[in-house]
Here is the input.
Amino acid sequence: MRLVNEAEINGKRILLRVDFNVPVQGGVVVDDTRIRSVLPTIRYLIDNQARVIVIAHQGRPKGQGYERAFTLAPIARALGELLKQEVPLSHDVLGLQTEADVQALQPGQVLMLENLRFDAREKTNDPAFAASLAELADIYVNDAFAATHRAHASIVGITEYLPSYAGFLLYRELEAINRMLRAPERPFMAILGGSKVSDKIKVIDSLLDVVDVLAIGGAMCFTFLAALGKAVGNSLIEPDWEEQALAILDKARDKGVKLLLPTDVAVATEPTVDTLVTVFGSDALPAGQMGLDIGPETAAAYAKEIALARTVLWNGPMGVFELDPFVSGTRAVAMAMAMNQQATTIIGGGDTIAAINRFGYNDMISFISTGGGALLELLEGKTLPGVAALG
Here is the structure.
C-alpha cells in the first residue's frame, strides 16, 4: 500500500476520499472529530500545491438526486473554517458544473463535491460511475478509514482507473490497530459495550485469542447474564444468541482470559431523564425493571482492571450514557482510561468517541479510531475491501 507522500502531487488534481459522515444539527456540524482527523493529509496536499477534490458521503439518502437533509454544505463550511480558507461545494456529484468547478481549481485550493450517495451507483460500485469520478482527477487518495469496509465505487472501483494511495489517517488507523493486535504490551484489556451480542459476537470471539481481560457492558451483557440463568427483568436480551454467549464464556475459560460481567446494574422502568433509578445485583433484577447502566460496584471493578492494564481497547458505552441518570458507568470507564497514562489506550465507535468528547478526556487517549464498522471488521480479522484495493 503506497502512501500519499510517495506520489508526485504538485499541481495535480487529487481526488481525496474522506469519511465526513458527521452529526449535523440545524445546519451546523456538532462533532468535527472525523473532519479534524483528515487535516494532516489535506494540509500536506495544500502545502505541496495539489488541487484537492474532496469526496464524501453523509447519511443514507435515497440515491435519486439531491436531498437537502443530506447536503454536505455544512461540512464544507466546517472544513473551510478549520483550514482557514474557503472550501466551495460543487452542487452535484458529476456533471458539467462539477467539471467546470474542477477546472477552475487552482494549486493549493480545495473543492468539495456533493454527497456521493445522491447517486445510487456509488453504493453498487458501478464501474461507469467510478470511471466518471476518476476522469476528474490525476491521482486518488483514500483517507476514509471509517468507510473502507464498504465495497463502494469511491472506495474500491475507482482504484481501477487512477494511481491510488493511502492518506495519513488511513495509515495511522491500520498501523495502530494492527500493532495492538499483533504485539500488545500486556496485560491487554478490551472493554466492549453496545446493545446487541449479535453485532459483536465475532469481535468477542477474535479478541479472546489476544486479550488477557475482557469486560462486557451495555445492553449486550444481559444476554450473557440470561444465558447463565440470571433474572434480568425487562432488560434487552437476544434469546437466540444465548447459546453463543455460553460458548464465549467457555472459550474465555479455556483460553485463561478473565471475562468480566456486571455484578450490579442501574435499573429503571424506562430510559428517561426523570425516571427513578435504583441499583440491584445483576443476578436478581426485578420484574418490570430494565438494566440501563452498569452499577457502581461493576464500574469500580472495571476501572481497577483498566488501571492495571498496559494496553486497553474500548468500543461501546456501558449504558444509555446520553441520559444523565445512566451516564456513571460510561464516565467511570472513560476516566479510568484517561488516568492510565502508562497504557496505550485505543477507543473506537461513534458513541464511544461522543462519550470521550463529552467528558473532556479526548486529549488523554493514545489513539481515537474514527472507524465503527471498519474497526469491528479489523478486530474480527477481516481484510477491508478499500485496503485490499490499494494493494
About this structure: Residues 168-182 form the longest helix (15 residues). The radius of gyration is 22 Å. The chain is about 35% helix and 20% strand.
